[in-house]
């Protein structure tokens, strides 16, 4: 029997590119979406990259290494794995980079996509390239526009004037999700507020559904929590305050009705519609008007600082009073910029004793502070507001009640008197999708003087993004498309009269909110997706990505799918029942960032060590869902391991006569399989290493069939983790192409039962018992079992002074009694 002579070294780059070319040529990673059995399909989705300047980020590599290893394992377990890839190629990121280097986004995108394809291919992941998509391709964005029209028809896309957040550097409005504090998430510039006509998608209509849907999702808890907080459901009470002689009834929103008796003022936002009526004839008109004008100019900063808990504390007194619904007291009404017009009812009852923002406002404006909740004794007197729980004081018939019970009691009392009502509020805002930019799908509507807002007829889609030379944002509140006469002027689809096109493009997150629906139908041109294929292939079986998209992309995609489900366009409401997020990678202990210059470029490692080493190393760093630290030294360790495997499998094996106990092999199959099933890659790799160590130790004792089984198992078990090397070794040991189309090896469950050995128990060197115990018992466990034996206890006088323990063989309890008697 001859075995191929093992090369002491192997050339990873030659071997890897050779196999990759073969896999692509043989299309072994493509599946037939028309015929795959629904119970065998496995839609293994990864977050698709936006083709940026720098190329693939190691975070992508980390996602893809995990997802691909998982997918390959499932394929060996009999699944038909669908693993498509594409490009999120529209959007501000790409456009900003194009602006910086002075290249047109279209050519830039074409160029970077070529580089991304090469990089993605170099990882040796089982991509189905036949279904590649790019969101900036008219054959894709035609359907993004079509979806917009469906939402428009359903009343879920609306245009309204709104105070929006504007980035003075990116020269566009931003969604709330694109802010980091007061700054633009993309460029870090401080944002300002503008009032503009904008398109919104009514995600708020789905707040409750999106919240409830979370319960049934198999998602990381942290991701669910982030979405819950983002949606921000709060149960509160609306409390009405009448203003005598004005006909004004102010409706406030509070989550703390228990503090009702502590109200010493009301606060309205500068936008409040009743300000006029409240100031008329009071002598406060000028002061209030001045304050309002000033506040509106600087509104965003104030609103953001409110969210961060730092009110500007500015305000003006209207000189009007409202009547307290419980005490009948006169309560002064103020206007201040820490109240947000669009949250709650846009009016606040001020309780300075128990709310910090109100406390600071009261301090600056000299308003009384009336405590109505007594802090528990041990807390001491609060320095500022006491925001915790406690017993009610000075609260009429509610005095003495614990605050958490008082909330309900006071809410009920208000309801009974018609002065208030329980309500549910959400922090979630509608999704602003208008962008005054160039690189996105034009929003497909037309404005006609006679017919108003008219949707572009579906048969006229796509509204092609015109190829303009000057794509720079204008900063005037309109998109650069507004300067393209031939684009702007059109005929009204309804009356054929002259009309203007909408010139804003839509948010790039709209492109990615539905892309997973397009993959299975990517080559179909007359519909966004084929209903049968969609029913067969979706929802996604596993979605892998990074932790940074939880309140944006993941939420938008859920909203989109819920909406499409309600429109009868897809047969499921949740697109991603199983979400898997990897943890953060650091480099030598530090967070990777461009400013530190320590961002790992996966390209270099793939070039130097090969894709197998790079992938496997990433997965070995730590638990995938927790992340870990990237170090070059660790990478060398994986490389050594793979070379060792290479030598072990390719070097000639001299058959021996005596058989070897192959149970460790069964155990390796079982544990590695169980780990891969749960995406515990690091422990799977550790078990593989241990198994290889065992095989190296035992191989000289193996008969040839035993060696054949062991070496095949090594190759099959490593196939999901090191796909190229496994293919090469599989060929060298005479396996049928492809190793990736083989079945995961089966194991004998009988081998998993713990092995038993006989443990001899002695007392002072005399054998007193023999028991059967599992292999590998440690000293303490052995001692416990020995001490429990009848005959041992009889001979043991007091505590043993010393214990002699030979693992799996003997335990001797030495009391010293025999020494004395001797
Ligand atoms: C009285 C009160 C007393 C409040 C107290 C808090 C503590 P969450 O929980 O985030 O929903 N509020 C309501 N509408 C507001 C608006 N438009 N702008 C600014 N603040 C507003 O916040 C609800 C609380 O935020 C409400 O409960 C209200 O202050 C304030 F001891 O009412 B509270
Ligand atoms: Zn018209």
Plain-language structure description:
The protein is flat, with a radius of gyration of 35 Å. Strand 7 and strand 8 (183-184) form a beta hairpin. 42% of the residues are buried. It is α+β, with helices and mostly antiparallel strands. The chain has 27 helices and 34 strands. It starts with 11 loop residues before the first helix and ends with a helix. Mean pLDDT is 90; it is low at 1-6 and 306-311. It folds into four domains: 21-143 and 509-586, 3-Layer(aba) Sandwich (Rossmann fold), CATH 3.40.50; 233-426, Valyl/Leucyl/Isoleucyl-tRNA synthetase, editing domain (Isoleucyl-tRNA Synthetase, domain 2), CATH 3.90.740.10; 587-751, Isoleucyl-tRNA Synthetase, Domain 1; 754-821, Ubiquitin-like (UB roll) (Roll). The structure holds ligand ANZ and zinc ion. Zinc ion binds at residues 448, 450-451, 492, 494-495, 497, 499. The site of zinc ion (ZN) has 8 residues, from loops.
Indicate the topology.
Layout: H1 12-26, E1 41-46, H2 58-76, E2 80-82, E3 84-87, H3 92-101, H4 105-122, E4 128-134, H5 138-153, E5 157-167, E6 172-174, E7 179-180, E8 183-184, E9 192-201, H6 207-214, H7 221-231, E10 234-243, E11 248-254, E12 265-268, H8 275-279, H9 285-297, H10 299-307, E13 315-323, E14 330-336, E15 348-350, H11 356-365, E16 373-374, E17 391-392, H12 403-416, E18 420-425, E19 431-432, E20 434-435, E21 445-448, E22 452-455, H13 485-488, E23 489-491, E24 498-501, E25 505-506, H14 508-512, H15 515-518, H16 531-537, E26 542-545, H17 553-566, E27 579-581, E28 584-587, E29 590-591, H18 602-609, H19 611-620, E30 627-630, H20 632-650, H21 663-677, H22 681-698, H23 704-718, H24 723-732, E31 756-763, E32 766-774, H25 779-787, H26 790-795, E33 802-806, E34 810-814, H27 817-821
Parallel strand pairs: 1-2, 1-26, 3-4, 12-14, 26-27, 28-30, 31-34
Antiparallel strand pairs: 5-6, 5-9, 7-8, 9-19, 10-11, 10-18, 12-15, 13-14, 16-17, 20-25, 21-22, 21-24, 23-24, 28-29, 31-32, 33-34
Helix pairs in contact: 1-24, 2-19, 6-7, 18-19, 19-20, 21-22, 22-23, 23-24
The site of zinc ion has 8 residues, from loops.
């Amino acid at each position: 029997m001859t075995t191929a002579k093992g090369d002491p070294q192997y050339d990873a780059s030659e071997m890897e590119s050779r196999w990759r070319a073969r896999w692509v040529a043989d299309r072994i990673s493509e599946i037939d979406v028309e015929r795959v059995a629904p119970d065998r399909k496995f839609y293994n989705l990864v977050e698709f990259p936006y083709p940026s300047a720098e190329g693939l980020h190691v975070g992508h590599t980390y996602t893809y290494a995990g997802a691909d290893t998982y997918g390959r394992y499932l394929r060996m377990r009999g699944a038909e794995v669908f693993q498509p890839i594409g490009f999120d190629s529209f959007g501000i990121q790409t456009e900003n980079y194009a602006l910086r280097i002075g290249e047109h986004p279209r050519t830039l995108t074409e160029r970077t996509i070529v580089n991304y394809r090469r990089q993605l291919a170099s990882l040796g992941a089982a991509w189905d390239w036949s279904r590649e998509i790019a969101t900036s391709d008219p054959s894709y964005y035609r359907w993004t526009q079509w979806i917009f029209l469906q939402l428009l028809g359903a009343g879920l896309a609306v245009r309204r004037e709104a105070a929006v957040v504007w980035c003075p550097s990116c020269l566009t409005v931003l969604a709330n999700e694109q802010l980091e504090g007061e700054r633009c998430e993309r460029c870090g510039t401080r944002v300002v507020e503008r009032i503009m006509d904008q398109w919104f998608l009514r995600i708020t209509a789905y707040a409750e559904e999106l919240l409830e849907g979370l319960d049934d999702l198999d998602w990381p808890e942290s991701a669910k929590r982030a979405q819950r907080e983002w949606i921000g459901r709060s149960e509160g009470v609306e409390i009405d305050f009448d203003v005598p002689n004005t006909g004004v009834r102010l409706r406030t929103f509070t989550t703390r009705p228990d503090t009702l008796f502590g109200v010493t003022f009301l606060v309205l936002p500068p936008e409040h519609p009743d300000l006029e009526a409240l100031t008329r004839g009071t002598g406060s008109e000028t002061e209030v008007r001045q304050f309002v004008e000033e506040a509106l100019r600087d509104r965003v900063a104030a609103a953001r600082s409110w969210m961060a808990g730092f009110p500007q504390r500015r305000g003006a007194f209207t000189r009007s009073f409202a009547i307290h619904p419980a005490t009948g007291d006169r309560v002064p009404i103020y206007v201040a910029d820490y109240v947000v017009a669009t949250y709650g009812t846009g009016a606040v009852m001020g309780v300075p004793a128990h709310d910090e923002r109100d406390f600071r406002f009261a301090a600056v404006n000299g308003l009384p502070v009336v405590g109505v909740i007594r802090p528990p004794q041990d807390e001491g007197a609060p320095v500022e507001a006491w925001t915790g729980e406690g017993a009610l004081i000075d609260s009429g018939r509610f005095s003495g009640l614990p605050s958490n019970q008082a909330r309900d009691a006071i809410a009920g009392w208000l309801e009974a008197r018609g002065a208030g009502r329980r309500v549910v509020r959400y922090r979630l805002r509608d999704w602003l999708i208008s962008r005054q930019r160039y690189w996105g799908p034009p929003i497909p509507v037309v404005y006609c003087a006679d017919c108003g807002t008219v949707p572009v007829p579906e048969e006229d889609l796509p509204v092609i993004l015109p190829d303009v030379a000057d794509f720079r944002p204008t900063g005037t509140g309109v998109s650069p498309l507004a300067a393209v006469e031939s684009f702007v002027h059109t005929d009204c689809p309804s009356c054929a009269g002259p009309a203007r096109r909408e010139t804003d493009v839509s948010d790039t997150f709209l492109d990615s909110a539905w892309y997973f629906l397009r993959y299975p139908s990517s080559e179909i041109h007359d519909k966004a997706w084929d209903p049968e294929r969609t029913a067969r292939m979706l929802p996604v079986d596993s979605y892998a990505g990074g932790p940074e998209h939880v309140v944006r992309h993941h939420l938008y995609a859920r909203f989109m799918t819920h909406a499409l489900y309600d429109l009868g366009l897809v047969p499921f409401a949740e697109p991603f029942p199983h979400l898997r997020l990897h943890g953060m990678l650091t480099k030598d202990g530090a967070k990777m960032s461009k400013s530190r210059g320590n961002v790992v470029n996966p390209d270099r490692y793939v070039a130097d060590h090969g894709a197998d080493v790079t992938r496997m190393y990433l997965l070995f760093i730590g638990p995938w869902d927790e992340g870990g630290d990237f170090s070059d030294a660790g990478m060398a360790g994986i490389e050594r391991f793979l070379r060792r495997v290479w030598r072990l499998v390719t070097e000639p094996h001299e058959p021996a006569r005596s058989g070897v106990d192959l149970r460790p092999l069964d155990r390796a199959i079982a544990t590695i399989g169980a780990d891969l099933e749960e995406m515990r890659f690091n422990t799977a790799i550790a078990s593989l290493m241990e198994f290889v160590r065992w095989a190296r130790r035992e191989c000289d004792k193996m008969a040839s069939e035993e060696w054949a089984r062991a070496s095949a198992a090594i190759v099959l078990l490593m196939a999901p983790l090191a796909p190229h090397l496994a293919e090469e070794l599989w060929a060298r040991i005479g396996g049928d192409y492809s190793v990736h189309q083989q079945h995961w090896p089966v194991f004998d469950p009988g081998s998993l039962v713990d092995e038993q050995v006989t443990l001899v128990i002695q007392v002072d060197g005399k054998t007193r018992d023999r028991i059967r115990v599992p292999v590998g018992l440690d000293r303490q466990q052995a001692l416990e079992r020995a001490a429990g034996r009848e005959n041992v206890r009889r001979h043991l006088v007091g505590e043993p002074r010393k214990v002699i323990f030979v693992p799996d063989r003997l335990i001797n309890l030495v009391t010293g009694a025999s020494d004395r008697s001797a």
